[in-house]
Design brief:
Oligomer: single chain
Strand content: 25-35%
Distance between the termini: 29 Å
Helix content: 40-55%
């Protein structure tokens, strides 16, 4: 029997497919525009293809799902037996995805509560999981939304990029900050703050920046029971090393997910990205 409350998110949550299937979470894809091709994230363009395109300096942009795609998704979920939907999405500071979902929700066949989590990647994924687990236990729409919002409030996301140029091109960080980083030849550590990407620290070398990223994650996790996600783009060795070190240093670690980000986030960060999401229980 289908749950009364269904959970919808978008492709930037980067939840493993088997996890979405186990919890009945539906994902709506964002689009990557590569040259003159519009490709759905997750099915029509891989992270590897995206990284190669960026390295060749091909034109890459991203776009939100259409309201009609959301409308189709909501109808399909309702047809499967849901009597209400919680639709959780990446920060509205990054994308018009939230706005498209709100438009579609107005005419959905069942009530839809759309939430701007202020998160992205597994920071969004952990919110979707919290809502799904609440719905699975018989929780209402309001209870599922509260669970997601509480998880978002407790979750932090930090990341290292080799260059701020990709974030500058996509308008995700100010040109002045990007130029300052280049002029000083520093390696930036960034954080998600208030739904926006903000500079956290400037470090002189990549190795020192990655070591500092590890320390920040350990400090943020503390002695809490915590879930961690390590993300990368075209940097699997960096991700594996960081994950191994965090496993050794966090005795209260519950789940640790290691994954390559998809094309939408990758388009704005560039190859070499190494990120960590810290989500205490």
């Amino acid at each position: 029997m289908s749950r009364h409350v269904a959970i919808v998110t978008d492709s930037t949550a980067y939840l493993p497919q088997r996890t979405m299937e186990r919890h009945g979470i539906t994902s709506v894809p964002l689009t990557v525009v590569l040259g003159d091709q519009a490709l759905e994230e997750g099915t029509e363009i891989s992270a590897r293809s995206l990284a190669l395109a960026l390295q060749k300096r091909r034109s890459v942009t991203t776009s939100r799902p259409s309201p009609e795609l959301f409308a189709q998704t909501y109808r399909k979920v309702a047809d499967s037996g849901a009597t209400a939907i919680v639709s959780l999405h990446l920060s509205a500071e990054f994308s018009g995805t939230y706005d498209a979902a709100v438009l579609a929700a107005k005419d959905a066949p069942v009530p839809v509560q759309v939430v701007d989590t202020g998160m992205v990647a597994m920071a969004l994924g952990f919110c979707a999981l919290a809502a799904a687990e609440t719905a699975e236990s018989g929780g209402s729409v309001d209870e599922a939304v509260t669970a997601a919002e509480k998880r978002a409030a407790n979750t932090s996301a930090y990341f290292y990029v080799d260059t701020l140029d990709y974030l500058r091109r996509g308008g995700r960080i100010g040109a002045a900050q990007a130029l300052l980083g280049s002029a000083l030849a520093v390696k930036p550590l960034l954080q998600l703050d208030g739904g926006r990407i903000e500079m956290l620290e400037k470090v002189r070398t990549a190795s020192k920046a990655i070591a500092r990223l590890e320390e920040i994650v350990v400090e943020r996790a503390g002695s809490n029971r915590v879930d961690i996600a390590v993300h990368h783009l075209a940097a699997p060795d960096r991700a594996a090393t960081l994950a191994d070190r965090l496993r050794a240093r966090l005795p209260a670690l519950a789940e640790l997910h290691v994954s390559e980000v998809g094309a939408v986030i990758g388009a704005h960060t560039g190859p070499g990205l190494l990120g960590a999401v810290v989500s205490p229980w």
